[in-house]
Design brief:
Blueprint lengths: L1 H21 L10 E9 L6 E6 L4 E4 L18 E8 L5 E7 L18 H4 L6 E7 L6 E6 H4 L6 E12 L4 E10 L5 E6 L12 E2 L9 E9 L2 E8 L5 E7 L7 E3 L11 E7 L6 E7 L6 E7 L5 E6 L2 E2 L2 E2 L6 E9 H10 L7
Parallel strand pairs: 3-21
Antiparallel strand pairs: 1-2, 1-22, 2-3, 4-5, 5-6, 6-7, 8-9, 9-10, 10-11, 12-13, 13-14, 14-15, 16-17, 17-18, 18-19, 19-20
Keywords: Signal
Protein name: Glycosyl hydrolase family 43
Organism: Breznakibacter xylanolyticus
């Protein structure tokens, strides 16, 4: 009798495991989307911020202009910069952030201005990024990934900035690409594939694009449209500005398109792109750090060749309702349910 019960229990367990294994993650498409989530940071706190929008034009910070996650709770350097977010095909949300606090000495987090000697390793030197994962945009796990520890041969790394993410459909893996330099040399963007748990890089970082010889570039953002990959970068060739390179491949073969993609007359960086829900329109955002107070600039395109300048936050069609001086954004589409849950979590009186 006991053996029979054990066999029945075993069969039930195996059946449950099999059912779980066969359960497919619901595929979410653009038709399911109803709102936008913007992630950004601020220099004064080095924390992570969320802002919601129903129409992709007016954004409201979910925590009334305060961080949703404090940088000193997740980063080695007690601060984060340059947040990026994506939705994975498994239904999870993935985020990557620069592990760097540029005011750490002033706040007593370290005795020197930088983590290592500024002359040898440069301004804002760091060696790590913060990786985050969430099923619902509310509950997050996090890991600090030190590039030099993952690959000891990269011990001379001078910076690991602006990590961004994209899912490589051919490999079935998340590809992280980020700005890296060695010592105090010229910076450029490298890519690596992430492990299944999103806690570590599986492959040695490789250069994704060789820019103009002798010039550096930073802050890449890749958007796939059809069979083309559009990579926007911050070029330092003649002042910081946004340029575009295009390829048929996710991490090779990028060809530079001459000219600026932004509509600014002053330095800007941190380009990122989001698609308007249900429209054949994409919005290019960039951080105009040379103006005071700094702000975001916007341009819109339907073909990635011609761009319509939309101005700045609160100086054009793009608006903020309860926050200012944001830095380095990324935007994703989210569902009505996700937006409502996020608003409820932060007691934001915003209907979706």
């Amino acid at each position: 009798m006991i053996k029979l019960k054990f066999k029945i229990l075993t069969l039930l367990m195996l059946s449950a495991i099999s059912a779980t294994a066969q359960k497919k993650v619901k595929t979410i498409t653009e038709k399911d989307m109803a709102a936008y989530l913007m992630v950004y940071f601020k220099d004064d706190t080095h924390g992570l911020y969320f802002a919601l929008s129903k129409d992709g034009y007016s954004f409201t910070d979910v925590n009334n202009g305060n961080p949703v996650i404090a940088g000193d709770t997740i980063a080695e350097q007690k601060g984060i910069r340059d947040p990026y977010i994506m939705r994975g095909p498994d239904g999870m949300f993935y985020a990557a952030l620069t592990d760097l606090h540029i005011y750490a000495q002033k706040l007593g987090y370290r005795t020197d201005q930088w983590e290592r000697d500024g002359k040898e390793y440069g301004w804002g030197n760091n060696r790590g990024v913060v990786l985050m994962k969430s099923p619902d945009l509310i509950h997050w796990s996090h890991t600090v990934l030190r590039v030099d520890k993952a690959f000891p041969e990269l011990a001379n790394i001078g910076c690991a900035w602006a990590p961004a993410l994209i899912f490589d459909e051919a490999k079935g893996k998340i590809m992280m690409y980020f700005t890296m330099r060695f010592g105090n040399g010229k910076a450029k963007v490298y890519y690596s594939y992430m492990n299944k748990d999103f806690t570590q890089m599986e492959t040695m970082p490789k250069s994704i694009f060789e820019y103009i010889e002798g010039q550096e570039y930073i802050d890449a953002d890749i958007t796939k449209v059809g069979n083309k990959y559009h990579m926007f970068i911050c070029s330092h060739n003649g002042g910081a500005h946004v340029e575009q390179a295009v390829s048929d491949s996710i991490n090779t073969g990028y060809q530079l398109i001459p000219g600026r993609s932004d509509g600014e007359k002053v330095d800007c960086e941190a380009p990122t792109v989001f698609k308007r829900i249900g429209e054949n329109k994409w919005v290019l955002i960039y951080d105009i750090y040379r103006i005071n107070p700094h702000n975001f600039g916007f341009s819109e395109t339907t073909d990635f060749e011609n761009f319509t300048y939309l101005g700045h936050f609160n100086k054009g069609v793009m608006k903020t309702t309860n926050f200012s001086i944001p830095k380095h954004p990324a935007v994703i589409q989210i569902t009505k349910k996700e937006a409502k849950h996020l608003a409820a979590k932060w007691h934001l009186k915003m209907k979706f």
